[in-house]
Amino acid sequence: MAPAGGRAADRGVGVLGRRAAGTDQRAAPLPADFPGAIIVLQRQSPDRPSYLADILARNCALPVSAAGHGAALRAGTVAVVPPGKHALVTTGNRLALISSNHPPPYRPSADLLLTSLALVAARRTIAVILSGGGSDGATGAVALHDFGGTVIAADKASSAHFAMPEAAISRDDAVDYVLPADDIPALLVSLTRSAAGQVLLSGDTGHGLPGGDVAG
Length: 216
Known about the structure:
The chain has helices at residues 20-27, 52-59, 110-121, 138-146, 163-169, 184-192; strands at 2-3, 13-16, 36-43, 64-66, 78-80, 85-90, 94-99, 126-129, 150-154, 177-179, 197-204. It is α/β, with parallel strands linked by helices. The protein has a 9-stranded mixed β-sheet, with helices on both faces. Helix 5 (163-169) links the parallel strand 9 and strand 10. Residues 5-11, 15-21 and 202-216 have low confidence and may be disordered.
């Protein structure tokens, strides 16, 4: 583990993943009594079916369901944001889903979700940025960090596509920990044992079905 200024563990968790396979590998080792609420974002075309919830449900010890507008975030559960929706977290720890009519650069947007978490739950949120193309999540990571959240990024050696972690790491003082992706689950457990919070998993399948080797 290479800390870049790690802070107290009164946080939740945010995990930004490139694809379903990577998200699955990071979520599967989390124990059934994991104390955070998990939000999963996977960037993909709304015209393609999403199988991420099914993949996670088969491999994760935590209950998995589709995220719903107005749904409360609950510790020890996984909420998967549907394609073509942006997700925000509001006061009262509830999800707000916003339809996206025309394709912006990234959807669902990790930047939007992390920024909303920065405003309502920064000190209970940890963002984890995994392998992926593009720079989505970097600006949100800065906002989260500046408001007292914690940011973790996968290192280059464990990233098939380093653009996403690199974009966050390149922002001054935005990342608290840089470490191999396989070591992230244990760190998440350690950081969240002292307090319940949110967990965000976000990724991108812009060019294929979940589980494929796609960019984003």
